[in-house]
Amino acid sequence: MSDLLLLGLIGGLTLLLLLTLLAFAGYSGLLAGVEVSAGSPPIRNVTVAYKFHMGPYGETGRLFTESCSISPKLRSIAVYYDNPHMVPPDKCRCAVGSILSEGEESPSPELIDLYQKFGFKGFSFPAPSHVVTATFPYTTILSIWLATRRVHSALDTYIKERKLCAYPRLEIYQEDQIHFMCPLARQGDFYVPEVKETERKWRGLVEAIDTQVDGTG
């Protein structure tokens, strides 16, 4: 009888654990619908403090943590410049940081100095007239993992089906939502200096290779 009671207790606790995990996943956005649309951007022009990263996107967590630790009340932002399904992980480029100001507001010199002290750089992004956008609940850390797997695939499908030129891909972490935004215009204005520099280097390398091939031909 005691064995049956023990088994029943273990089974009950296991079921309770599973239900708790399912509830947590649901609260994190597991069952949330992902609606992609084209329209106005979720933010206006912004000034950001960022750090540039080249490498696997999965390694950017430390940059989010660092920028949030400097000023936890500011919104986090990330700009992803390469498709990780087409570009080798070690060549993927992104910028991660915090939004210092939006619209006509200017960031305070003290705030700029604070971020620069920790190695962040300043840059301004415009407000494009038209973007591809989607949102996802931001309630737990699991929400980020779910969003990267559900929203990005939905954006890829939407953009491909409509043959749109929408890049780079921005993530804005605002209160209880993650906003995803892909500009349909002025894309080059979202390229931080480090990205433009790598573009120049890669073009120079390709031109050098082409010259060598033509010379040997």
Number of extended strands:
8
CATH class of the largest domain: Alpha Beta
Portion of residues in helices? Answer: 40-55%
Helix and strand sequence: HEEHEEHEEHEEH
- Helix count equals 5
How many structurally independent domains?
A: 2
Globally, the shape reads globular
Major sheet size, sense and barrel closure: 8 strands, antiparallel
- Show unreliable segments: none
Q: Assembly type of the shown chains?
A: single chain
Computed over alpha carbons, the radius of gyration is: 22 Å
Report how far apart the termini are. 88 Å
Arithmetic mean pLDDT: 89
**Class of secondary structure makeup:** alpha+beta
Identify the strand order in the major beta sheet.
1-6-8-7-3-4-2-5
CATH architecture name of the largest domain: Alpha-Beta Barrel
Provide the CATH topology of the largest domain.
Answer: Multidrug-efflux Transporter 1 Regulator Bmrr, Chain A
Q: Strand content of the residues, in percent? A: 15-25%
Could you provide a short overview of the structure?
Helices cover 42% and strands 24% of the residues.
